[in-house]
Amino acid sequence: MSLNLKPLGNRIVVEPLEQEEKTSAGLYLPDTAKEKPQQGVVLAVGPGDRDEKGERIPMDVKVDDIVLFAKYAGTEVKIDGKKILIMRENDLLAIVEK
Amino acid sequence: MSLNLKPLGNRIVVEPLEQEEKTSAGLYLPDTAKEKPQQGVVLAVGPGDRDEKGERIPMDVKVDDIVLFAKYAGTEVKIDGKKILIMRENDLLAIVEK
Amino acid sequence: MSLNLKPLGNRIVVEPLEQEEKTSAGLYLPDTAKEKPQQGVVLAVGPGDRDEKGERIPMDVKVDDIVLFAKYAGTEVKIDGKKILIMRENDLLAIVEK
Amino acid sequence: MSLNLKPLGNRIVVEPLEQEEKTSAGLYLPDTAKEKPQQGVVLAVGPGDRDEKGERIPMDVKVDDIVLFAKYAGTEVKIDGKKILIMRENDLLAIVEK
Amino acid sequence: MSLNLKPLGNRIVVEPLEQEEKTSAGLYLPDTAKEKPQQGVVLAVGPGDRDEKGERIPMDVKVDDIVLFAKYAGTEVKIDGKKILIMRENDLLAIVEK
Amino acid sequence: MSLNLKPLGNRIVVEPLEQEEKTSAGLYLPDTAKEKPQQGVVLAVGPGDRDEKGERIPMDVKVDDIVLFAKYAGTEVKIDGKKILIMRENDLLAIVEK
Amino acid sequence: MSLNLKPLGNRIVVEPLEQEEKTSAGLYLPDTAKEKPQQGVVLAVGPGDRDEKGERIPMDVKVDDIVLFAKYAGTEVKIDGKKILIMRENDLLAIVEK
């Protein structure tokens, strides 16, 4: 999938991972989360928000990170038939280490 | 279309793109977004908000950028029969690269 | 109409323009906005809000500017039989250039 | 009426003017505002709020100013049978010039 | 009444004055305020809130001041059979001068 | 009761005092507060919140202080059969002097 | 349990302790908290939030701390069949000392 989205501010583009896929971290999401995935891979990272002096605050995630995020976080967009999410970095809960 | 609007603060003027138009980025918007477009072209860009010292914070988008924005973002205005939207830059999610 | 109102802070006094009047910018407002005008002419401009050091933040609009503003913005007052609105500058969306 | 109230912070004491009185500015208030006056004369002015360094922010109105304020602004108190209002300066919309 | 309360932050301890008592300022409270008094005498004053550098912001009222406060302001406590109120200084509207 | 809780931030641990116990300050709480005590003794004090530079803001109460707090303030925890409350210092109204 | 989660910002990963387990601190949680545990062990700690200059604010808890947290705090995730919670440090009430 060639990605053509450049997220703004502290936003990131995430491709949700299907719940059935067990990650190398052995992580499963609880049954109550079945409708919406809570795990995904980072496809693109924004330049970061600006602090009160107008300077960029560095982002803590990078492309290819596996991340956990709260249910219903982000806005859904479809690219080449795949659903992706655009959300703010502070909607992310944790990075799943590989 | 000659545009005569000069947006204030961190506002931008966006002309929504019809969902049927496939952009060069191969981007489609999901079915649930049919009523309101989520993609548009930037027609005008405000001077930016002022930080707490009264200086302008630079804008991250420019005229002719293709942008994604949240459903229901912005205020609708009609110019020469075309619907345009005026919204704040932080209502924008991402720039669609060409 | 002689105006005798001196707006406080970042407030401005706006005389709404009738929707039927087409401005020189060829701007029309959508049908859904019929009850309340969204376009007006600036009659008076406040001195600006104070920043956290107590200094005035300069205003971005001036008397005679044609402005767009959100529906229901401002407080209605009647002067010599005409309805005017007093609103804050950040309720303004854009300046309509002549 | 001898006034014995010293307002605190950025508060002011206002005596509402009856709607029937046409001011020298030829200002009338709209019919929908009949129940509560929106115009008054300033009887007393507080010392101003403190900024984040603890210094006073100067007030923009002074005793005897005729002011416009939003409906329902302020707290009603009765002195010698007259109703007066105590409100914050930012509840004021404009000064009516004489 | 010996007072044993030391208010914290910008709080003050106020003993409400009965509405029937006309103060030396000739001040009456409106009928709609009958259930809860809006006037009282200051019994104790806290050390003041801290500003963002951790320094105390000075209080504007002192013990024995007669003050006006908004209905329902503060928390009721009973000392030796008397009802007193503990409230924040910014719940006070004005000092009634003697 | 040996206490094993170290409160975080500006939190304190308070053991509520029964309403029947008259304190040395002769303080009674009003009847409407019967269900939940509003008076207690401080068992532990957190290190204080951090100001915007990351430094600790000193706490105004210390262990063994008798304090008044708003009804429903804090979170209930049971230690060795006794109910204690963990609350933030700004939920405290006053110190009852002994 | 090998943990593979790296929490972001001021988030921590907590494994809730069953209410039946009496900790060495002799701490019991009240009956009204039966549905959701309020006590847990810290499995992982984020790098801390950034202050307004972009520097990290140090965390006050560390791995293996026993902590108390408000009911319903955090987001549930399941790892190897165990339920864990990801929450922000300011959802924590206190550290239970061993």
CATH class of chain A: Mainly Beta
Total of domains of chain A:
1
Radius of gyration of chain A: 14 Å
What's the N-to-C terminus distance of chain A? 22 Å
Annotated CATH architecture of chain A: Roll
The proportion of residues in beta strands of chain A is 35-45%
Oligomeric state, counting identical vs distinct chains: homoheptamer
CATH topology of chain A: 10 Kd Chaperonin, Protein Cpn10, Chain O
Secondary-structure element order of chain A, as H and E? EEEEEEEE
Envelope shape of chain A:
globular
Tally of extended strands of chain A?
8
Number of helices of chain A: 0
InterPro entries (chains A, B, C, D, E, F, G): Chaperonin_GroES, Chaperonin_GroES_sf, GroES-like_sf
Family (chains A, B, C, D, E, F, G): Belongs to the GroES chaperonin family.
GO molecular function, one term (chains A, B, C, D, E, F, G): ATP binding
Subunit structure (chains A, B, C, D, E, F, G): Heptamer of 7 subunits arranged in a ring. Interacts with the chaperonin GroEL.
